[in-house]
Every structure is written in structure tokens, then in C-alpha cells.
Amino acid sequence: MCGRISQYRGLHEFxxxxxxxxxxxNNVGSQPLMRYNIAPSTPVAVMRVDDAGLRADLVKWGWRPxxxxxxxxxxxARAEKVAHGPFFRAIWPNRAITPVDGWFEWVDEGGPKKQPxxxxxxxxxxxxxxxxGQFAGSDHDGFVIITxxxxxxxxxxxxxxxxxxxxxLAREWIDPAxxxxxxxxLVLNLGEPAEAFEWYRVGxxxxxxxxxxxxxxxxxxxxxxxxxxxxxxxxx
Length: 236
Hints:
lyase, hypothetical protein yedk fold, globular, DNA-binding, 14 strands, 3 helices
């Protein structure tokens, strides 16, 4: 999974998709986010449950433990290792959902530059990505998206995908009553399959994070793409 995502809908649409009982403490805002080309280390809308209930915040994409000063903060964590390795041990219990409209992958197709693709759900609903993070209200806060093997079915046989959960499983993921063992099984074995997604080529303008308009996610060619319909870019 490459390090670009999009969140152009508003929080109310993400909340409708997650469909949890209760009112959200919304620290994101009520307007569509209109962010089509989100890069690491920038704020991203994240949804979770704390002691006071449901809340949505803007949290920096990327996190590292205080002792890992020799590397940039990772933005992703592998589902196969995240529950047991020392790097993410401190935040493994802090589960969240990162709702995205889609994400980008770059594929080597033999040209001078890798070809960017945009990936989204076939049903055009937001993708509910399993995430973990530090949400202490400090400068060290951040989050990572958990990734799983793409099983050879999306864009490139070697790529990885976010661990996208169906709404019912996403609710289990962020439920504090869900055990760590069950949470691990959710991201290892119960993520949405490749058949739930479509992908298509987009222009190289996505390579520059200053480019943020809806044209970023428009298809440039239907050839070789899985479902080449023009994307919805507004409220649904």
C-alpha cells in the first residue's frame, strides 16, 4: 500500500457507513473534507471509541514509539506482525477506524515512471480501514493503517491493501469489549476481499501533494482497469 489516501466526503457519511449507536463528538467538522491526495504526516479523520463514547478527530498519519528515533514514523503496520512485535506494542490496544474514499498504488508497467492507480470500493461506499494509534492529546499522537496481503488480486500481485472491514466487523474492531485476540483475527482473516474493490489508472499529478482537486481521482483510461466508471466526488 502506497502512502496516499483520499477523504473527500463529510464525517456524517463516514458515520452513516459505520452505523454505530450514539452521537459522535465531532472534532473534524461538518463539511465535506474535500481532500483527494492526503500524504503521510498530515492530519486525517479517524473514528474511535474512548471512555466517553464515540469521537472523531484529526490525527497525524504516522507514528513511532519514543525509542525509535532512527527512522521516519511508519504509516502502515502489517497485520501478520502488528499484534506481537515490540514496535507497535504500546498502541495495539488503541483501535480506530480510518474511513477513506480510496487510496493510490504505483505500479511498474515498463514505462519511464510507475503508473498510479486509484482503488475504491465497487459499491462506492467509504472503505473502513482498521487502524491503531496514540490518542493522548499530545504532540506525539499519530496513527497507522493496518495492511494485509492483497492475495494477488489487486493492481499488482506483490502489493498490500488496507485491512478494510465490513461495517459490522468495523464496529467490533473499535468496541473496547472486543478482545485483542479477536481483533487480531479480524485483520488477519476477515478483511474485505479483492472482489469488493475496483481500480483504474489516474494521472501522474497525484505524485505532487499540492495537487488536491477531484481531477486527481478521474480515470485516464479504461483499458486494463477493473471497472472504469467516473468516480463520485461529492456527497452521496
